[in-house]
Amino acid sequence: MLRGLIAAALAGTGLAAAQAQTAKRSVVVGHSVRRRAIVAYERGDPAAPTVLVVGVIHGTEPAGLAVIRRLRHVPLPAGTHLWLVSAANPDGLAAGTRQNAHGVDLNRNWPTAWVHNGRPWDGYYSGPRPMSEPENRAMRTFILRVRPALTIWYHQPLDVVYGSDPHVAVLRRYARLTGLPYRRLVAPRGAATRWERARFPRGAHFVVEFPAGRISAATARRHATAVLALAKGLRVTPSP
Fold this sequence. Notes:
single chain, about 240 residues, alpha/beta, Aminopeptidase, eight-stranded mixed beta sheet, globular, disordered N terminus
């Protein structure tokens, strides 16, 4: 009887519907060369525009993990929907290498403006062909499924927010909220954000570079707050 009264009260206040619409789950979107899982965590309201945040694509640039950890647990504003990927390059993260286990720079392997560059384990080796790497194929399939309206990829060590897409106001706002400078730079050939901007031009997809080394808890908190501020300001728009 008490359970029924509680359920009735929740329904009366609209909380039951809100709870039913709030997602909190994890999915394996694919696997690395060494068969490590690439895991995405969903939080928030699936009816809201999707925000994708990727903590690591280069294994030697792990600072973004602190932001992902915070975003997985902080209270979310109403009307926000997050997908959080800790590491799109789990092999590189485990080995402490920029590249994946094939020696490929995953941020030079996406198909938009791809060019062959270098050889395995060179700093910017692009791979033998676009999307040759299982990590990127998994992420592409996942991104096409969730269709993000906003994507942030964390890197190091340039200490800057950058991108050259038409959504410069979004990037500048993130920079203001976090205290980082903004630079209007073109993403490298074969970069993930370059592909996303071509595939989803209505959205803002950009890079945030932390300085070298570990970031403080205050910095992680500031960046998580900036992500949520941008997410809260998104509006649902019809698909192209």
